Amino acid sequence: MGWSQNDLSTRSNVGLSTIRSFENGLRTPIANNLLAMRRAFEEAGITLTDEPAGITYSAASEKNGTGIAP
User: Fold this and answer.
1) Domain 5-61: what homologous superfamily?
2) How many alpha carbons fall within 13 Å on the CB side of residue 67?
3) Rounded to the nearest 5°, which phi and psi values hold at 48?
4) Contact predicate 43/33, CB 8 Å
5) What angle do CA 68, 27, 50 make, to 5 degrees?
6) Where are the domains of the chain?
7) Which residue intervals of 1-70 are DSSP H helices?
């Protein structure tokens, strides 16, 4: 997708320092942050599945089509 941490932060409305801490293993995400990030991915065409665990991507469903946060 080519998103930066800043893109995910903007799209999910989760603080940039929080996302950096998640990625560096310094912090465990809380439920509302996980939900916000999941929603951002799903709005961009990413489908996260639990059973079986996996990810699918549909580029055509991305809202602005650029891979860049609006």
Assistant:
1) lambda repressor-like DNA-binding domains (1.10.260.40)
2) 7
3) -100, 130
4) no
5) 65
6) 5-61
7) 5-12, 16-23, 31-43
- The SS3 assignment for 22 reads helix
CA distance 44 to 11: 9
Residues 53-64 pLDDT 10s: 667 766 644 555
Of 1, 26, 2, 32, which is closest to residue 14 (Cα–Cα)? 32
How buried is residue 13: exposed, middle or buried, by Cβ count under 10 Å (0-12/13-18/19+)? exposed
Residue bearing tokens 């999910």:
12
pLDDT digits (tens, 9 = 90+) for 7-55: 999 999 999 999 999 999 999 999 999 999 999 999 999 888 777 766 7
